[in-house]
Design brief:
CATH superfamily of chain A: Molybdopterin biosynthesis MoaE subunit
Distance between the termini of chain A: 37 Å
CATH architecture of chain A: Alpha-Beta Complex
Strand content of chain B: 25-35%
Number of strands of chain B: 7
Shape of chain B: globular
Radius of gyration of chain A: 16 Å
CATH class of chain A: Alpha Beta
Largest sheet of chain A: 5 strands, antiparallel
Helix content of chain B: 10-25%
CATH superfamily of chain B: Beta-grasp domain
Helix content of chain A: 25-40%
Structural class of chain B: alpha+beta
Radius of gyration of chain B: 12 Å
CATH class of chain B: Alpha Beta
Order of helices and strands of chain B: EHEEHEEEE
Oligomer: heterodimer
Number of helices of chain A: 4
Structural class of chain A: alpha+beta
CATH topology of chain A: Aldehyde Oxidoreductase, domain 3
Number of strands of chain A: 9
Number of domains of chain B: 1
Order of helices and strands of chain A: EHEEEHEEEHEEH
Chain lengths: 160, 81
Amino acid sequence: MGVPLVAVTADRLNVDALTAAIARGASGDGAVTAFTGLVRDHNQGRRVTFLEYEAYEPLAVRALNRILEEARTMWADTRLAVHHRIGRLDIGEASIIIVAASPHRAHAFAACRYAIERVKQIVPIWKHEHFEGGEVWLEGATADPEDEHAKQAAYKIACA
Amino acid sequence: MRVTVKLFARLRDLAGAAELIRDVPAPATVRTVWDSLVAEMPSLAEYERTMSVAVNAEYARMAASVNDGDEVAFLPPVSGG
């Protein structure tokens, strides 16, 4: 069975497998970029002990596919894949991996950065942070895929 | 008519349930469902301005119509990545 381009999974993430899946047989590629998001041991002055990620899975998968489609319209020569982990993650574990392959490094870097910015805007996944002395649900962006300002902000960061 | 309500993250904690079955009078919108939930659990009201909503696992608006058997989800601001 092949590695899917998009996944929301409780399994440990494998950036090598995702890179192999997206780079396979593409002799026109000049660049592959990979981003790995990690669980870190501190946040806003708190000592983090572990995170629990929760997702609305069917919508999260759709939102990830939407991000891939958006990236295709921006960098037509670039292929993108995103896997997000859910469940309990300890410090140092990978919560998200993003791989982009392109004839050109600028497009590969940009697509990778665009994807992580959009994930934080529109994918229904939440971090439940457990820290020394308590726990808290983290809340970032109000998800609205139709918000063109948010989309443009992600594009500007990607191309900065 | 009967809908399935899905709640996530802190909204789920506030409600004490990830999934609720609720009867609402037809014709209904997402707002009808939300208003009945808030009437039942006033602590949810703080999310009115910051949450997103979905019908049958597609993003929707508060004015979107809801039909018998639909799944209506209320989503706090997201924090993936």
